[in-house]
Write a structure and sequence with these properties.
Elements: H1 2-6, H2 13-20, H3 24-32, E1 39-40, E2 46-47, H4 50-65, H5 70-104, H6 128-134, H7 139-147, E3 154-155, E4 161-162, H8 165-180, H9 185-224, H10 235-245
Antiparallel strand pairs: 1-2, 3-4
Helix pairs in contact: 4-5, 5-9, 8-9
Biased composition (Acidic residues): 236-247
Keywords: Coiled coil, DNA-binding
Domain HTH merR-type: 10-79, 125-194
């Protein structure tokens, strides 16, 4: 699988540092900060994967090109690691469901129907004045964040902005990043882009898993309702028939 090859630890620290144009000591610092998670050989030597190299290049872009401080970089990389972990969980769940489907082909059992309801946290309910009050911001600030695509409120049929509980969570996170951690707007944009990506990936994963569960359930139902195969006459049936006809 392509994802597996990207996560395979292959580069020692000197090679990894050369690939990303950093000093090996910088890579050790980033590891201590939890920004990067290299593997280890059986002899405890650090080994970096292609995904680690991508993350190191992203750290360099954030710090050198966008001027994001270390607190902002930590937030970005934490979310990036969550995305990586989610992808791994998704692939493991797909593999588990495929194994389950193969196992149940010979012994069908009913599965619970998936819940296709919208997450209540995504339901747009708050007008902008209420949303601004809930997060202690000016409504104009919320409009600015929307133009920057940091937040994505819904719209009523009359085009009124409506914010969900998830939007409120995101706005509070923006306030924490800017006021408590001192992350600049470029860093906040990167973090919120990853947050939206993570939410979308999680919803996509859950939807795919539900569809697979429904597929398994449908197959179980069809197997249970198949008519029993007709019994074919065996040699003994034929012998009995011949005996009776000769009486």
């Amino acid at each position: 699988m392509a994802t597996d090859s990207k996560q395979r630890p292959v580069y020692v620290i000197s090679v990894a540092a050369e690939l990303v144009d950093m000093h090996p000591q910088t890579l050790r610092l980033y590891e201590r900060k939890g920004l990067i998670r290299p593997g280890r050989s059986s002899g405890k030597t650090r080994l970096y994967s292609e995904r680690d190299i991508e993350h190191l290049r992203e750290i360099r872009r954030l710090t050198q090109e966008l001027g994001v401080n270390l607190a902002g970089v930590e937030e970005v990389m934490r979310l990036q690691h969550e995305l990586d972990d989610l992808q791994g969980e998704f692939e493991a769940e797909i593999e588990r469901l495929e194994d389950e489907l193969r196992e149940r082909a010979t012994a069908p059992q009913p599965l619970p129907a998936p819940d296709g309801k919208l997450d209540p946290r995504d339901r747009p309910v708050y007008v902008i004045s209420i949303a601004a009050e809930l997060v202690d911001m000016h409504p104009q600030t919320l409009r600015l964040y929307e133009r920057k695509q940091l937040i994505r409120p819904g719209r009523s049929s009359g085009k009124t902005r409506l914010y969900s509980e998830r939007d409120i969570e995101h706005l509070r996170e923006i306030r924490r990043l800017t006021q408590e951690l001192g992350v600049n707007l470029a860093g906040v944009e990167e973090i919120m882009r990853l947050r939206h990506q993570l939410d979308s990936a999680r919803a996509h994963m859950e939807g795919n898993v539900q569809r697979l569960q429904q597929d398994i359930s449908d197959r179980m139902t069809s197997w249970r309702t198949l008519p029993a195969p007709e019994r074919q006459a065996g040699p003994e049936d034929g012998d009995e028939g011949d005996g009776e006809s000769g009486k």
